[in-house]
Amino acid sequence: MIGKIRSIPLKILILRALLRRLPKNHPKRIHISEELSRREAGYNSEEYLDTLIEHLLGSKFIIFHDLNFSDGKSTYQIDNLLISPQLALIIEVKNMTGELTFDSINDQFYQKVGDKIKGYSDPVTQVQRHQTYINKLLAENNFPPVPVDYLIVINNTNAVLVFQGTSSEVRKRICKSHSFHKKVHLIENSHLENILSKKNLRKLSRLLLKNNTPPTNSILKQYEIKVSDLLTGVLCPLCIHKPMIRKKKKWFCPSCKEYSSDAHILALMDYFLLFGTTITNQQFRKFAQIDSPDTSRRILLSMNLKGTGTYKGRTYHPETVPW
Question: pLDDT for 43-73, tens place per residue?
């Protein structure tokens, strides 16, 4: 059963929005473009594994793809979380080639392709951090103590796995995608007791969806980009020129001379992805470069956004992001 389908990950949408708003000569642009390419390749790989997970485990588990949580201090992006009466299983997916070394002695993970070596965040440390968060979430909401286990899947047939100081308990939770079904079977067999009732599972499913939080705001801090570095204005959907000019109740592009009635939608989406999920009339005027408060108000009211507050204190927000 699918509890949450996988859509384009918010991190990819956020990186795309960031690239739309960064000047072409910005020093961080190349690094962000590389990160986006890596994540897009990973997303395509995850879609393949999703099919495998759903085929093998869809009758036994409720499957949640691409969950994002926050505890107010840190964020937690979980590729896949599967829940059943017996256990909660986190599945972390990596689409990487070359020689991949899990160095548990130094809590390191690095990739060697040819003569080049590059380090990445350690997937073991990452997934164990997610494991701790899910355990805490279950305890705080008074669920029975169901075990939370994990599996790291390398979804690239050309990868070679190397382990340094990795315990057998951790090593048996790391595999290539072709042996995924064997590893899952071993984990299932080590957790046979029914702990969560059907009522517990329904309650937990609602809680996971309720707590699924878009990872906005943090991207600028992560890449040490100042708000003042970003380009504002409404982008032309045809030639990507910015800013467009509000003219005759439409958007006019001074570069290609075309008009658009809805070019502001992408500007609003960029704002929600980069700065947070609420916006005021004043913030929208400044970001979209609109002179008239009445014009910006009419646009916001036409966008099927939820509103809170009155007059100058009114804020607008989408029900979900992406919206």
Answer: 877 777 777 788 778 788 999 988 989 888 8
Q: How many Cα atoms sit within 13 Å of 243 on the Cβ side? A: 17
Closest C-alpha to 293, from 275, 310, 281, 305: 281
Residues 198 and 272 in one domain: no
Per the confidence metrics, is the pTM higher than 0.90? no
Is residue 52 assigned to a domain? yes
Which residue has tokens 């990452």?
A: 126
Domain boundary (156, 179, 211) is at 211
The answer to whether 260 touches 251, Cβ cutoff 8 Å, is yes
- Specify if 225 maps to a domain: no
Is 217 contained in some domain? no
Q: Quote the pLDDT of residue 241.
A: 82
Listed in sequence order, the residues at least 6 apart from 87 whose beta carbon sits closer than 8 Å to its beta carbon are 146, 147, 148, 149, 187, 188, 191, 195
